[in-house]
């Protein structure tokens, strides 16, 4: 994921260490309570990498918008397998702003 996320950037960022975030979900009863932001930001708070990357199914624009509100930007799209969904590749610089 780390190398893959930077292949979309030209020129690639000088910051080279990337933390790949995958499959962080919040149970339905905890959605819209701030729990996902708290979990996400807590997970990344003490990371020593320069960047964080994740993929979001493009059929979930609300999830993409949520990550954009957390300082991610879409840098490309990827479909890892012929029968898999199309994913938006998103990247953010660490540390995240508060």
From TrEMBL:
Gene3D superfamilies xref list: 3.40.630.30
SUPFAM superfamilies in alphabetical order: Acyl-CoA N-acyltransferases (Nat) (SSF55729)
InterPro entries: Acyl_CoA_acyltransferase (IPR016181)
Domain of life: Bacteria
Protein name per UniProt: N-acetyltransferase domain-containing protein
Organism encoding this protein: Streptomyces carminius
């Amino acid at each position: 994921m780390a190398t893959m996320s930077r292949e979309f950037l030209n020129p690639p960022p000088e910051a080279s260490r990337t933390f790949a975030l995958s499959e962080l979900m919040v149970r339905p009863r905890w959605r819209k309570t701030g729990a996902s932001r708290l979990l996400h930001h807590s997970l990344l708070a003490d990371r020593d990498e320069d960047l964080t990357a994740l993929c979001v199914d493009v059929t979930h624009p609300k999830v993409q918008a949520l990550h954009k509100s957390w300082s991610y930007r879409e840098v490309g799209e990827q479909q890892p397998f012929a029968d898999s969904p199309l994913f938006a590749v998103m990247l953010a610089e660490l540390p995240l702003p508060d």
